[in-house]
Write a structure and sequence with these properties.
This protein is of the alpha+beta class and 98 residues long. The chain has one domain. The protein is built from three helices and four strands; from the N terminus they run αβββααβ. Strands 3-2-1-4 form a four-stranded antiparallel sheet. The longest helix has 9 residues.
Length: 98
């Protein structure tokens, strides 16, 4: 069974540090279990910005616009963000935050 399928069937328990200023999700693609990373980082205005770390965020094919995901991050609604990311062609394997 592929890593992607395993994660779809049994999603990991993810914990994000309270008041984090940077959050990086490691994702696994449905295509050959390729690894990707999505980073949320607060800018000088204190708002989170989403970055594909060298790749276009549209590659994840999430069913939500980028601005809606960033707004959820601004509200610290990480459970909703996880669901939004997992709605696309990749699933979250792990997360780190600081």
């Amino acid at each position: 069974m592929s890593k992607y399928r395993e994660l779809r069937l049994n999603p990991p328990k993810l914990t994000i540090k309270a008041g984090a200023k940077e959050v990086i999700f490691k994702t696994i693609s449905c295509m050959c279990d390729n690894v990707g990373h999505l980073r949320f980082k607060k800018n000088s205005d204190g708002e989170f910005k989403l970055d594909g770390m060298g790749f276009a965020v549209s590659n994840w094919q999430m069913k939500h616009p980028k601005h809606e995901i960033e707004w959820e991050a601004d509200e610290n609604e990480w459970g909703g963000i996880i669901a939004m990311i997992n709605s696309g062609t990749e699933v979250i394997e792990s997360v780190i935050s600081r």
